[in-house]
Write a structure and sequence with these properties.
Layout: E1 18-30, E2 36-48, E3 52-56, H1 63-71, E4 78-83, E5 86-87, E6 95-98, H2 102-105, H3 112-116, H4 125-138, H5 154-167, E7 172-176, H6 184-201, E8 204-208, H7 212-218, E9 221-225, E10 230-237, H8 246-250, H9 253-267
Parallel strand pairs: 2-10, 3-8, 3-9, 6-7, 7-8
Antiparallel strand pairs: 1-2, 1-4, 4-5, 9-10
Bound molecules: adenosine-5'-triphosphate (ATP).
Pfam family, one: ABC_tran
Keywords: ATP-binding, Nucleotide-binding, Transport
Organism: Streptomyces djakartensis
Length: 274
């Protein structure tokens, strides 16, 4: 792939400084006396400060496991994760995670505002309020602060989860299949909104997804994993300027070419039994 069009990203400061680095990462799971699952074989990758990277791969290849190791939620068996040059042993304070299952990550007994303020208990009340207001405005839910999550649609609940993540003022945002549980139309809107929030806030973003189109539309670079035990089979730069309009982007020949290449790479690496 050619050199990336970095100059077309006006709001987001991109640097070539590595922020997240994974070297020779491997992970097995064993359940009691049962068979061992070799989830991650040998994965090395790096994410630059301000970069948006998507990770795709066959079902069960260890994408979630990789994200959990990257965030410090899970300890790898081999290799190392470094964040800002330091080994990661627990979740860094300026790293936020958005999971697929918004209905399990939001507290139904708290209002939307209180859910968004949830990780900010160390801050004074007025600061918490302001952070929640700002974050809800970013996800265009400012009118729903006093609702409860169960009064909102699935897409709106996932926007609350995104607001809660950005209210932390993170430097890094990790997302694990964040839009997999919403309908196709809502998904497109959420992809556009999240990509523009990431750019506007200059976040370093890592997205795990099954959806090749979503990966290309949102990311600066797509990392393709093999079937389990996974390794990196390709890293493809997305040379499409921002801001991106989903319909226009999907009509571009370079989009179709990337989609075909990634599809072939994943097809050549069939899914392991998950
Ligand atoms: N805590 C665990 N204990 C035992 N096995 C696990 C555990 N977590 C994951 N695995 C196994 O490791 C493999 C990789 O799982 P993981 O969820 O990381 O893959 P994935 O690529 O995210 O899957 P999918 O594409 O289906 O979401 C699977 O075979 C899974 O069953």
């Amino acid at each position: 792939m050619t050199e990336q069009t970095k100059q077309a990203v006006p709001m987001k400061e991109r640097t070539d400084h590595t922020l997240l680095e994974v070297t020779g990462l491997g992970k097995h799971f064993s359940l009691g006396t049962g068979p061992t699952t070799h989830a991650i074989g040998d994965v090395s990758l790096s994410v630059a400060d301000g970069e948006f990277v998507a990770i795709v791969g066959p079902s069960g290849c260890g994408k979630t496991t990789l994200l959990r190791c990257l965030s410090g939620l899970l300890r790898p068996d081999q290799g190392q994760v470094r964040y800002a040059g330091e080994p990661v042993n627990r979740v860094p304070g300026d790293l936020a995670i958005v999971f697929q299952e918004y209905n399990r990550s939001l507290f139904p007994w708290l209002t939307v505002r209180r859910n968004v303020e949830f990780g900010l208990t160390d801050l004074p009340r007025a600061v918490r309020r302001e952070r929640a207001r700002e974050a809800l405005e970013r996800v265009r839910l400012e009118g729903f602060a006093d609702h409860f999550p169960w009064q909102l649609s699935g897409g709106m609940q996932q926007r609350v989860a995104i607001a809660r993540a950005i209210a932390l003022h993170p430097r890094v945002l990790l997302m694990d299949e964040p839009f997999a549980s919403v309908d196709a139309q809502t998904r497109t809107a959420l992809e556009e909104m999240t990509a523009s929030i990431s750019a506007a806030l200059g976040l370093t973003t890592l997205l795990i997804t099954h959806d090749i189109d979503e990966a290309i539309f949102m990311a600066d670079r797509v990392v393709v994993l093999s079937a389990r035990p996974s390794r990196v089979v390709a890293e493809l730069q997305v040379d499409i300027s921002r801001p991106r309009d989903e319909l226009a982007v999907k009509a571009l020949p370079e989009f179709s070419e990337l989609r075909r290449r990634i599809h072939d790479l994943i097809g050549a690496s069939p899914a392991a039994e998950a």
